[in-house]
Amino acid sequence: MFVKWCGPCHVSRELGSYLFTTQSNHSHQISRKAVFIFAITGSLALLLVLMLGVLCYCRVRKPKVNESGEPKYTQAFPLKRFDRKELESATDGFSESNILGISSLSTVYKGKLADGKMIAVKTLNFIEFSEESDKSFYQEMNTLAKLRHRNLVKVVGYGWESGKLKALVLEYMENGNLDKIIHDTRIDRTRFDLSERVDVLVLVSRGLVYLHSENDFTMVHCDLKPSNILLDEKWNAHVSDFGTARILGVHNQDGSSVSSASAFQGTIGYLAPEFAYMRKVTTKVDIFSFGIVMMEFITRKRPTGLTEDDITLPQLIEQSLSNGINGLIEIVDPDLASDSSTKHDVVEQILQLALCCTRSDPDDRPDMNEILSSLTKISKKV
């Protein structure tokens, strides 16, 4: 029997080759594991760095609060901050005898500063203006401070004390508001002939043109009505209260809908249908309200409660105009009787323009520049 002897050298080479291959495969497996581990570790480290970066950014961006509780983003305000004691002194402790107006959202007081300057202090209702609206309040104060127009009531400052006071400080208007001029029987309206009323409407329209298209951003008032049109010592008209809607978050001028949960609801009778039912906000909301104001100023009739069948003011005017001059004379303010008989065409033009403003489809309403142009032309006829 013959057995082939391979020899020790051959066996050693085979064994060495086997061991080298085994070690090589093992090293390759270790290398793959190391790469995998390094990849996982690197990804986790990168994620951790990103998270830390986001946290640091949020801490930097978060408004810091000083000892008085006021956010630091108010420190660069162009508006003056009034101390609570200063406003209490100016209004005799927010005395009821100094109340100029009151609503569910605010109370307005007449005040007099230590230097003798007259002011109006509008204190906001904390139930409606919650702590969550603080940042919005300061942002809108900054916005309102930039508005400058002779037919807007000037915002001269603000008052803020955590949980105790949130107020706007406004320039004082000596001759009150248009609502009292129209409806208060104790007011002497002899100065308010047709020419004077058209002049007031022209001034109001100028203020609205500025809000809608002549500043860096479009601002929609959302609650235009006679009580928000104030008259100074020379009887010039100024639009007031144009910041309340924005403080409560109602400022989607792009036409999108705002939250129905907002405390701001507007005033029945002056609300455009798209805002009342769909909360859709565009400048055409103000056009509708201005149309109602025009009608109310010329007829001295409020927009609600006219008849038992709830006919609207636009419907009443449309019916009256269809009856010719007799219907016109019947619908206008009796104080304008003489003007109505001699300038009935001018009165009709005003009311027809008002009807255009109150069309149900906002796209069919004119814009404020067109209204101002029409009223300016009408003013030259009276």
- N-to-C SSE series? HEHEEEHEEHHEEHHHHHHHH
Residue share in helix: 40-55%
Oligomer description:
single chain
N- to C-terminal distance: 142 Å
Number of helices: 13
Q: What would you give as the CATH superfamily of the largest domain?
A: Transferase(Phosphotransferase) domain 1
In percent, how much strand structure appears in the residues? 5-15%
Report the radius of gyration as a whole number of Å: 35 Å
* Nearest-integer average pLDDT: 82
Report the major sheet: 6 strands, mixed
Could you please say which CATH topology of the largest domain applies here? Transferase(Phosphotransferase), domain 1
- What does the overall shape look like? globular
Summed up, the domain count is 2
Contiguous uncertain segments of 5+ residues: 1-6, 62-68
**Helix-strand category:** alpha+beta
What is the topology, as strand order, of the major beta sheet? Answer: 1-5-6-4-3-2
CATH architecture of the largest domain: Orthogonal Bundle
